[in-house]
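Form 7-S
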Amino acid sequence: MADEQVQSIQIQQSSLFRGTIERMKLTILGCSGSVPTIGNPASGYLVSFDSAPSIVMDLGPGTLARLQEHQDPCDAHVALTHLHADHCLDFPSLMVWRRFHPTAPAASRNFCLGPSSTESHLGRLSSDEPNGVDDMSDTFAFSPWVDRERQLVDDVYITPFRTVHPVETYALRMEHAKSGATLCYSADSAYTPALIDAASGADIFLCEAAWGETSEGKAPNMHMSGAEAGRLAREAGVKKLVLIHLQPWGDAAATYAAATREFDGEIVLGASGMEFEL
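Output:
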């Protein structure tokens, strides 16, 4: 009888634990390729948690305004994939909010992770002087990515993977330490096997497809097509492919169709405001 009671207690505790497993949520702040457009800011993705600060992957033009619709902009770490303007240009405005908001400035420092020149590059954008570099260590602790070096940021493991792009750029793989849910963000890149490793088995794969239906005739070593995004999703064995970074002058329907010819899993055309529970 005692053994049965112990077993019952263990089952109840196990059920309670399963019921309180924390999750993460992905919100697309903006996903327009290269430039913002009406109703869709440039690149920015909010990853939020039940009991830890959020992480914003990229802060392109227009994303800070969308971030305000979801949470206090100060309560978030920043993870930058690269330093092209369409992925980081709202960062100086975030600095103004964090430092000078009259009632709700940043209460403490957050992490800012990014390429090796992140602190100096953003410091120039934030400086009052033409040749100055703003010291932002009062509000952010900066840390550079190291290719394929996994690190724990609160509740999530982040692993950067170097991509093929004209500037230092990293795809980001996020694995929730408590639930095991995994998402991958390709950042900007031409097709590369490194993205197969980055996205392997991911629940959600945010993959750029700036070149539309095909990369033929487009600039090399820069972006991917819908067909290449679909191929990567298939090769990595992801559960859901979300096509992002589509340029506003492109053909979204043709891009989507090209991806379906390579990947028979679920495919979504990304849009600002979309939310995904993981």
